[in-house]
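It would be a great kindness if you could assist me with a short task in structural biology. The matter concerns a single protein, recorded as an amino acid sequence and a row of backbone structure tokens. Kindly check, if you would, that the fold set down in the tokens agrees with what the sequence suggests. Thank you for your consideration; the sequence and its tokens are set out here:
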Amino acid sequence: MRAMVLTSPQTALEWMELPDRSPGAGEIRVKVRACGVCRTDLHVIDGELAHPKLPLIPGHEAVGRIDAIGANVASGLKIGDRVGIPWLAHTCGVCSYCIHGHENLCDDPQFTGYTRDGGFATSVIANARFAFPLPDGYTDEALAPLLCAGLIGWRALVRAGSARYIGLYGFGAAAHLMAQVAQWQGRTIYAFTRPGDNSSQAFARSMGAAWAGDSTQLPPRALDAAIIFAPDGALIPQALRAVRKGGRVVCAGIHMSTIPSFSYDLLWEEREIVSVANLTRQDGIDFLSSVPHWHISTHTTPYPMQRANEALGDLRAGRFDGAAVLIPP
């Protein structure tokens, strides 16, 4: 197998040839056909998420076909099945969070592309219980961003409750997917980008946003909820200014820069700030089974897997709309 490998945080990934791996009990091996590039990958590589497995193969939006199955796999999976390998790779099943249906908060989890090797490779080993069947009618490249941008975006949208008017701060991979879902649900989307990012604002309007502007601006009407996808803590007080009394601000990222101090007046009148952490398998089942009904279209930019560093750099600089996807040789 070949893979892009992180040997130390804040260094470039290296294209390496590695021994082929065999699945253990309860595991499957997946021949990777596509793997999305997520901002969480940047947080891992840049050292903003502590204690990654090293050396590490990043990537947690992997799509491929099963080519080997370990012992005691009882999930009905078979050789040749197309599956998706998401961020959540394992949970303990015995802590209070797992027992009460909140496995996304498990006390002893494993995460693909962070604490175990991920999908920036020609093959990946995964816990069979955490692999998702994928809908037909989509290419591997189109499906890859759904496995994190889609799943975390979906969990964030659910946390926004019944909000009719929703602001999306940071219009990248997750936002362009959730804009489509929200519109299908009859909601109205307002998109916020980096100041002066006219290209992303035009992209947001092309995806159905009723309004698009700078993150420093107020929308033309008060919002019922705002979802922050960009990892910028300064957006929290901006979003609080934009939501109505009783409105909710949902922080969807795994990492965010320092939140500046702000006047209590912005939070008063029963406004709320909540965060989203990881996902549950039920999130994946609910979201992926609904994708065909929503007619979601993913906007992707493909890169050869060996050019993962270029894709990561372009993501950091905001050089593409939608999502980057790595294609193995």
Notes: The longest helix spans residues 281-294.
